């Protein structure tokens, strides 16, 4: 009798244990699915296919004349950042080129690693595009420029809603180029990202010639995580941006395949080896670069950014990032547009600064001004947000 009771108890215990295991398994699966949904904005593969087809049908035409369907990357199949290995060896075959010795040390180093395009991510925030985002503000920065990032967060980079339209902020960074301070700076950046959660960092050395890596890295990242975001602002960390004016401009633009800023036409490559903008003829033989926009800041449609990702994979990396964007636009047969309210050409001189301090209304009419120290950026923001009444405050919100 006791053995029968023990048998029944044993069977009951086994049933209870199996039930507990089943419940735990279901919970783990559900949590995993929720985490996956947070990381990947798209709901499922069929929805991604449908979104991709609808985007393609809206804007093909002349933009895609040089491309067959087979040459384009199917973004709908990408589920996350897929680069996990930073081991990129030098292309030693370059050394044997007869012209290699004459291009200078900086260009030599660039050419040796030119084929290295995508890198692992140290900090990633796909959740930035997980909501119904209207405008993604993307800022190129370096580890040591914390004060600039903090000034932007306190001023025009505040994550908020303007007339119901959600705005989010991201900073694009590589790694520190100073060997002995690298670990220290990286620890500080890790803490900064833990506090603010707005940094995308890739595992490549931050340098002038590597700015283009931020361009292609961001285009790939955007195509993976932000397919539903309609508008992007992209700029440097020393600019003033009037966010309200930008939103007002976008509300009246009704365009998706556009890119607008301060346009540069007939810009010739610099052949002076002492200049940081030096480009030897072996890399670019044409007289002028294609039209491009000043990298201090510009606006573009999200669908265009995804098309640019496709063509950027067909082009060799170029050391001047602004010119590289112009090359992508040329392939797409998209003409950049000029906006009179975007000023990217340089600092305010002493006289203009005095005049503008007496008439802060001049700032109210701009979309962007380059370049400013963090301290002056905060002062300018206070002027713009003051309760002064300015005539014709929308005169520069149209192109």
Automatic annotation (TrEMBL):
Where mainly found?
A: Golgi
Q: What does this protein do?
A: N-acetyl glucosamine (GlcNAc) transferase that catalyzes the transfer of GlcNAc via a beta1->3 linkage from UDP-GlcNAc to the non-reducing terminal galactose (Gal) in the linearly growing chain of N- and O-linked keratan sulfate proteoglycans. Cooperates with B4GALT4 galactosyltransferase and CHST6 and CHST1 sulfotransferases to construct and elongate mono- and disulfated disaccharide units [->3Galbeta1->4(6-sulfoGlcNAcbeta)1->] and [->3(6-sulfoGalbeta)1->4(6-sulfoGlcNAcbeta)1->] within keratan sulfate polymer.
Name a biological process GO annotation.
keratan sulfate proteoglycan biosynthetic process
One GO MF term on file is: UDP-glycosyltransferase activity
Q: Where, by residue number, does the polypeptide cross the bilayer?
A: 12-34
What is the organism of origin for this protein? Answer: Lepisosteus oculatus
E.C. number(s) listed in UniProt: 2.4.1.-
The answer to whether UniProt assigns keyword Transferase to this entry is: yes
Tell me which InterPro entries the record gives.
Glyco_trans_31 (IPR002659)
Gene Ontology, cellular component aspect: Golgi membrane
Give the record's family classification.
Belongs to the glycosyltransferase 31 family.
Q: What is the lineage of its organism?
A: Eukaryota, Metazoa, Chordata, Craniata, Vertebrata
* Its membrane topology: Single-pass type II membrane protein
Which pathway does it serve? Protein modification; protein glycosylation
Question: What name is this protein filed under?
Answer: Hexosyltransferase
Name its cellular compartments: Golgi apparatus membrane
Q: Does the keyword Glycoprotein apply?
A: yes
């Amino acid at each position: 009798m006791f053995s029968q009771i023990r048998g029944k108890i044993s069977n009951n215990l086994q049933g209870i244990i199996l039930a507990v295991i089943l419940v735990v398994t279901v919970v783990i699966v559900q949590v995993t699915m929720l985490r996956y949904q947070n990381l990947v904005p798209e709901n499922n593969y069929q929805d991604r296919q449908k979104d991709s087809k609808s985007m393609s049908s809206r804007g093909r035409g002349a933009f895609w004349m040089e491309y067959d369907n087979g040459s384009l990357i199917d973004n709908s199949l990408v589920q996350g950042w897929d680069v996990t290995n930073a081991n990129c060896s030098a292309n030693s075959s370059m050394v044997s080129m007869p012209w290699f010795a004459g291009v200078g040390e900086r260009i030599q180093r660039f050419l040796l690693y030119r084929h290295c395009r995508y890198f692992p991510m140290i900090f990633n925030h796909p959740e930035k595009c997980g909501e119904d985002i209207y405008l993604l503000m993307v800022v190129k920065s370096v580890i040591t420029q914390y004060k600039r990032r903090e000034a932007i967060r306190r001023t025009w980079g505040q994550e908020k809603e303007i007339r119901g339209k959600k705005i989010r902020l991201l900073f694009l960074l590589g790694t520190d180029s100073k060997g002995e301070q690298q670990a220290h700076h990286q620890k500080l950046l890790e803490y900064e990202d833990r506090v603010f959660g707005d940094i995308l960092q890739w595992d490549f050395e931050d340098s002038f010639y590597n700015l283009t890596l931020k361009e292609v890295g961001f285009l790939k990242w955007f195509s993976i995580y932000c397919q539903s975001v309609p508008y992007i602002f992209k700029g440097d960390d020393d600019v003033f941006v009037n966010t309200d004016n930008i939103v007002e401009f976008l509300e009246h633009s009704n365009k998706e395949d556009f890119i607008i800023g301060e346009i540069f036409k007939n810009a010739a490559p610099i052949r002076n080896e002492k200049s940081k903008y030096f480009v030897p003829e072996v890399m670019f033989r044409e007289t002028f670069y294609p039209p491009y926009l000043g990298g201090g800041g510009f606006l573009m449609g999200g669908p265009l950014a995804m098309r640019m990702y496709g063509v950027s994979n067909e082009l060799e990396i170029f050391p001047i990032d602004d010119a590289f964007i112009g090359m992508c636009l040329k392939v797409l047969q998209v003409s950049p547009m000029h906006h009179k309210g975007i000023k990217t050409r340089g600092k305010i001189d002493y006289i203009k600064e005095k005049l503008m301090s007496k008439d802060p209304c001049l700032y109210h009419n701009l979309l962007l001004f380059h370049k400013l120290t963090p301290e002056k950026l905060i002062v300018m923001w206070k002027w713009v947000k003051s309760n002064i009444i300015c005539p014709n405050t929308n005169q520069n919100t149209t192109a």
